[in-house]
Design goal:
Layout (H helix, E strand, L loop, with lengths): L7 H10 L2 E4 L16 H9 L5 E5 L4 H18 L3 H5 L5 E4 L4 E4 L2 E5 L4 H14 L4 E6 L2 E3 L8 H12 L8 E3 L4 H9 L5 E5 L3 H14 L4 E3 L4 E4 L3 H9 L6 E5 L5 H6 L2 E4 L4 H6 L2 E2 L3 H8 L4 H51 L1
Helix pairs in contact: 2-3, 5-8, 12-13
């Protein structure tokens, strides 16, 4: 953890200055089944009761998906509070989608900078040079589009997508299979693509692609993670556009690698999920929004530091188990190959 906030007095001081709230969507406001995460609507309700608060939603996905989440939060507030109808009307957040390439403020588009053909052609060339099996997904309003690669079976590819991208029931997910190259480029030429996600099934090639794109493609945000996210904007830039340059008045909540820059500059930040690097980049790691309420509304420093330690340790243990399992699998495969080679050699000797 960054440990910018070192005691209860500092936590109280920071909390008093916060009047702006920005949230990631997938894994933060909603879970993998497109259900609101625990404590979300209650926390936002509490913040709506504060005077002159501003809200923002920052997502790497579409405006349509973000709007659905806003409606879900309003519905829960209406159903659970006597003054819910009146309070819910106040929840009119700015929305930054596709990682900040498109920004809507006060129901008006204030930025629309999608992926251009010239940039896409450069990206495609670099990706194919490093890993010809890598998938480039086009992030469009109705979901992800991609050309099915011949080298990877459709079933294995679908399973990998579900594992790595955690497709939700709330949006189409991967709704284009076997699309022709002509249609693929047409989506870009028609200015329909807000961002890209690049998926390499090799972690080493994934890192190499990230490095090459960062060094070669100017003016685009390249965010490394399970998938490589590429957009013509960033969540931090979007926050400054909608909520003002003074991000020290912002409380930010996220769970992804592309949330890290905003976490590090916000007045106070909370991280959810199980990505160790992300959890360590925020002020506090939490299980849900109920934890955030205790930390922000009650300024319970003792609780939130304890909770952060527990969440971070659990994430580290899970990561270590995953690494050990992968190493064990690699060793077993190597032994199996050696045994297979030895067995084949003995068979050849017998046949001679």
């Amino acid at each position: 953890m960054k440990n910018r906030i070192k005691n209860k007095a500092e936590l109280e001081s920071v909390n008093k200055n916060i009047n702006k709230f920005a949230f990631d969507v997938d894994g933060t406001l909603v879970d993998d089944h497109f259900k609101l995460n625990k404590g979300v609507y209650a926390f936002i309700y509490e913040m709506l009761l504060k005077e002159k608060c501003q809200f923002m939603i920052c997502t790497g996905s579409s405006y349509n998906k973000a709007s659905k989440v806003v409606s879900m939060i309003k519905d829960e507030i209406v159903q659970n509070y006597k003054n819910g109808v009146e309070v819910a009307k106040q929840f009119q957040p700015s929305i930054a989608c596709y990682g900040g390439s498109v920004i809507v403020k006060n129901n008006r588009i204030v930025r629309d900078k999608r992926i251009e053909r010239v940039d896409f052609d450069k990206i495609e060339k670099i990706v194919n040079q490093i890993d010809e099996k890598a998938i480039i997904l086009l992030n469009k309003e109705d979901g992800m589009h991609y050309i099915e690669p011949k080298m990877i079976s459709k079933d294995n590819l679908k399973i990998k997508f579900l594992q790595l991208l955690q497709a939700t029931k709330g949006e189409g997910g991967f709704n284009t299979i076997g699309e022709s190259a002509e249609d693929y480029y047409k989506l870009i030429d028609n200015n329909e693509i807000g961002s890209l996600e690049i998926l390499s099934l090799s972690s080493s090639k994934n890192k190499a692609i990230t490095k090459a794109l960062s060094e070669s493609i100017a003016d685009l945000t390249i965010s490394a993670g399970t998938t490589i996210q590429v957009s013509n904007g960033s969540k931090l830039e979007a926050i400054k556009t909608c909520l003002g340059e003074n991000v020290k008045k912002v409380l930010y909540v996220g769970d992804g690698y592309n949330d890290i820059p905003a976490m590090q500059e916000a007045g106070i930040s909370f991280a959810l999920g199980k990505k160790v690097k992300v959890l360590e980049s925020a002020d506090f790691a939490v299980e849900n929004f109920e934890n955030i309420t205790v930390a922000f509304v009650d300024s319970d420093y003792k609780f939130i530091t304890y909770k952060s330690e527990v969440v971070l340790n659990e994430a580290k243990e899970a990561e270590e188990k995953k690494r050990a399992k992968k190493e064990n699998s690699t060793i077993k495969n190597a032994i199996s190959k050696v045994k297979g080679s030895f067995s084949s050699k003995k068979q050849e000797e017998r046949e001679m």
